[in-house]
Amino acid sequence: MIKGFVFDLDGVLTDTAEYHYLAWQELGGKMGIAFDRVFNEQLKGISRMDSLERILKYGNKSRAYTEDEKIALANEKNEDYKKLITNISPADLLPGISELLKELKAADIQLALASASKNGPIILKRLGIENLFDTIVDPACLTHGKPDPEIFIKGAEQLGLRPDECVGVEDAEAGIEAINAAGMFSVGVGSKESMKAADLFVTDTSELNVRDILTAAAN
Ligand code: B16
Ligand code: MG
Hints:
Number of strands: 6
Low-confidence stretches: none
Oligomer: single chain
Shape: globular
Strand order of the largest sheet: 3-2-1-4-5-6
Distance between the termini: 10 Å
Bound molecules: 1,6-di-O-phosphono-beta-D-glucopyranose, magnesium ion
Number of helices: 9
């Protein structure tokens, strides 16, 4: 029986991908690395340091900086990003999410956040939904990023549930891989092609429906 939902943040609850993109672009400009939105897709769900490594590799500059310089570059990106997310408000919740979360709470289902973002808590607060979440996994405590299942296993653990008692919701391929490997029922938001490994998929958050998900997870 499903007793908990473990949510990704970016692309599921709100769309912060555009702000990550703008902040990485700004840093890319300073490093002499240009990239577009197509390349940016590869950064979704990937941690800050791993994203920087991917950008450097893309620009053939993996060895251009020391580890300390890379940390300073990632911090610089985060300072820009934090400025961009200052004005996030409940209006930035993706379609249907507010209703979905309230319906889940009314059904006594526990909620956890499993986001790679260290800015997750402040974003939940600005979105006005922090009180609906029972727990937030701290990405700083993790050894492996998505597609490793660690973050979803930890989410279930923090809810006091087994992974098979939880549903995981994701928009990134690496995220669906992580949910499946954790042994949870996976719900994907995105195209049929990118969400082909999901147990259930919808193309838009407005199509997420508690009854449909619980029925599919029970079968
Ligand atoms: P931060 P998610 C991820 O969020 C983003 O998709 C990814 O682009 C970002 O690099 C990562 O969080 C880390 O974010 O720099 O704020 O710690 O999709 O896992 O909710
Ligand atoms: Mg995401």
